[in-house]
Amino acid sequence: MAYFSRITGTGGYLPERVLSNAELETMVNTTDAWIRERTGISQRHIAADDEFTLDLAEAASRRAIEAAGVRTDDIDLIVVATTTADQVFPSTACLLQSRLGIHGCPAFDIQAVCTGFVYALSVADQFMRSGMASKVLVVGAETFSRIIDWTDRNTCVLFGDGAGAVILERDSEPGILSTHLHADGDYASLLQVPKGVSNQLSAVQQGSAFVEMAGSEVFRMAVKTLGRIADETLAANDMRKDQLDWLIPHQANHRIIAATAKKLSMPMEKVVQTVATHGNTSAASIPLALDVAVRDGRIKQGEHVLMEGFGGGFTWGSALIKW
Ligand code: ACO
User: Fold this and answer.
1) What is the C-alpha separation between 132 and 49, in angstroms, rounded?
2) Fewer C-beta within 10 Å: the chain N or C terminus?
3) Closest residue (by CA) to atom 19 of ligand 1?
4) Percent of the chain with pLDDT strictly greater than 90
5) Same CATH fold, 177-322 and 4-172?
6) b or e along 186-219 (b: 16 or more beta carbons within 10 Å of the residue's beta carbon)?
7) Ligand 1 pocket residue status of 34, Cβ below 6 Å
């Protein structure tokens, strides 16, 4: 018997505090017009001082669990994609498992920066297809505001905090048709936080481990790579571009999203966009956008949804879903 996975519930959570472009104008040498024109972002959400990645992950997970109508006891795998774990260990997934009152099932984190959710979804799908899991909680949760240099206008205008989650359930027909993952570590220096636990821990403790990005190089690679992976995904499923109903790309920049849609000949009405109000929430961006489009009724049963991610590493990946 073949096992497949289907997304049966989605959830999202954004911190209450909204940071507008106007407020950023008072913090760094930038303008609302520059940010909106170059990125499409008008605001982002920022976690409160006493709010952490785990809190965001828990809120999004509870909403996904409620939407799917599953019992938490029945969840038999938890995968959390995050770059901004609250602790070195235990993993965010283990801490989340405890918050949700689940005991015994495997729980682990995945680190692929902005492609993290697609990586996590793919890994969860492999567990489902092999019969090792039947109800999975997959989360993308980030507090990128904690690794941003708020005096660097090149990066601080781009990012926000948030979490998105899905429940996957076993089905006899595929909801997730295919996933495709890639990475090339040769590009590490173009987008990175160059410090970590075993390298200059004291700098981390002093809060000086921040995102560094070669913006225009990342931009060019993102557009090229997201186009290529869309072609790879369609070919693997013997599908044409015009058979796609929805594109849910990683929400980094409106211009990257528009260029990707153009390569797919998709009108912008078929592209789910949250970058204007969420900013770039890294691993949370795709599940947050999915949750918005599911809850407002845009995505309907039987439709084909292409998710695409690109991020630090570089990492990139896609998931094609029949809703
Ligand atoms: N306000 C005003 N001016 C700015 C700002 C700002 N916030 N930031 C940069 N500038 C200036 C630059 O200093 C530069 O000035 P100069 O010409 O005097 O040197 C000028 O604007 C143009 O800079 P560019 O970098 O060429 O601008 P670009 O059009 O490329 O836009 C941006 C920059 C928005 C960062 C874009 O390159 C981008 O979106 N890159 C990709 C980001 C991304 O997708 N990241 C990947 C995912 S993130 C992750 O994985 C963690």
Assistant:
1) 39
2) N
3) 154
4) 94
5) yes
6) ebeebbbbebeeeeeeeebeeeebbbbbeeeebb
7) yes
* Domain boundary assignment for the chain: 4-172, 177-322
Q: Is the pTM of this model over 0.90?
A: yes
Cβ of 24 less than 6 Å from ligand 1: no
Q: What does the pLDDT read at residue 197?
A: 85
Q: Which CATH number applies to 177-322?
A: 3.40.47.10
CA–centroid distance, 34 to ligand 1, in Å, is 10
Could you tell me the distance, in angstroms and rounded to a whole number, from the CA of residue 150 to the centre of ligand 1?
A: 15
222 C-alpha to ligand 1 centroid (Å): 14
Class of domain 4-172: alpha beta
Question: Is the CB of 298 within 6 Å of ligand 1?
Answer: no
Measured in whole angstroms, how far is the alpha carbon of residue 103 from the centre of its chain?
A: 26
CA distance 126 to 226: 23
Q: Does residue 292 have a pLDDT over 90? A: yes
What residues act catalytically?
A: 114, 250, 280
Distance CA 205, CA 209 (A): 8
Separation of alpha carbons 206 and 197, rounded Å: 13
